[in-house]
Amino acid sequence: MNKKPVTMKDIALKAGVSVTTVSHVISKTRNVAQETRELVLRTLDELDYQQPDNRPDEAAPLDRIGVITADIQEDYYILLVKTIETIASENNISVLFCDSADDIEKEERNISMMLSKNVDGLILAPVNNGPYPRELKAADIPVVLVDRQYEKHNTSFVGINNAESALSGTRYLVEKGCQSVGFIGYNESVYTMQQRVVGYKMGLMQYLPNQTPQVLHLKYSKENSHHLIKAFLSEAHPEGLICGTSDICYQVLSVADDMGLAIPEQLKILTYDDNKWLDYLKYPVSVITQPTVEIGCHAVERILQLAANRRVGRRTKTEILYDTQIIDRLKNYPVA
C-alpha cells in the first residue's frame, strides 16, 4: 500500500503554525523568526516531507550551481573543484564555491547561504556521515554528493568504492611480502575513512586471518599526530601500511624518517591519491589512485540530468561508484 505523501498542511498542524508560514520556510519567500523556522524544519524532518514537483519534465536551464567541499586543503578537492568548474563553464554554468574547513556548523551555514543565493543545483562533499540536512530535504534543487556522503539520503552520490579499494590495497601489500598490515586514517565519522577501514579489515580476514586489525585514528586538526604515529609504528610494527590520505602519508614519512625506518625494506607504504612530491622521494611509495576528473565530470552531468527531469533520482538514493587503480612503485623491489 502506497504511503500518502506528507503535505504542508500536515506540517502546519504538527508544528502548530499556519500553512503560509510553512510555505515561506520551504520557499524562502519571506523571513520567518528563527525559532519558528527551526520548529518547521524539525517537523519537516520528523515527517519526512518531500518537496512536490508540479513542473513539466522539460529541461530546466541551469545558470549557477553551488559547490561545497569538506576541506579544500586536501589535494583531492583541488582537482575535483577545478574539474567541476571546467565542465560547468563548458555548459555555460557559473560556479559558486564554499569550503567547510571540516566544520559541521560552517557546512550548515554554507548550505543556507547557497540556498539563499538561489543556486540551481548543489554539488556537496559533506564533512561527516551524519543525517541529511533538513534544509536540503526541503529544497527544490538537484543535489549531488561527491567523495563523501551522508548516512541516509535520497539523492545521488558519485565517488569510489572505498571498501573495495582498501581491500585491494591490503591484498597488494600482502602480495609484496608484508606479514602484517596497518591502517592510519581520520575519524570514522568521515564516510571515506569508515568505508576504507571496513575494506582493510575485510582484507585482513581474507589474506591475513591471524592478524588483529591495527588501526590508528587521527584528529583532522593534526593535533599531536607526530607523537601518535610514532607510538603506533613503535608498538604495532606493521610491515605494510595503508595511509587514508596523502596528507597522512606525508606525516607518516616524516615520522619514519625520525625513527630511522628504512622504506620499503622495513615499512612498505600504500597511500591514497598520487601527488607530484611523491616522484621526488628517495624511496618508493605506492598509490591508490582515484579517477577524480571522471568523478567531477559525472557530478556535473548528474546535476544536468536531475535538472532536466526533477523526478529522476529525486527521491531515490543512487550511487555511481568508480574503480580505483594502484600505482605499483614496488615492482622493482624483491618480495621478502
* Tally of helical runs: 11
Which oligomerization state do the chains in this entry correspond to? single chain
Q: Gap between N and C termini, in Å?
A: 62 Å
SSE pattern, N- to C-terminal: HHHEHEHEHEEHEHEHEHEEHEE
Uncertain parts? 53-60
Biggest β-sheet: strands ordered side by side in the sheet: 2-1-3-4-5-11
Give the mean pLDDT: 87
Strand content: 15-25%
Spatial shape: elongated
Verbal overview:
With 336 residues, the protein is of the alpha/beta class. The protein is built from eleven helices and twelve strands. The protein has helices at 8-15, 19-27, 34-46, 75-90, 104-116, 134-138, 162-175, 191-207, 225-236, 246-259, 292-308, and strands at 64-69, 94-99, 121-124, 143-146, 156-160, 181-186, 214-218, 240-243, 268-272, 286-289, 318-322, 325-327. The strands form two sheets. Strands 2-1-3-4-5-11 form a six-stranded parallel β-sheet, sandwiched between helices. Strands 7-6-8-9-10-12 form a six-stranded mixed β-sheet, sandwiched between helices. Helix 6 (134-138) links the parallel strand 3 and strand 4 (143-146). It is elongated and about 70 Å long. The chain starts with 7 loop residues before the first helix and ends in a 9-residue tail after the last strand. Residues 53-60 have low confidence and may be disordered.
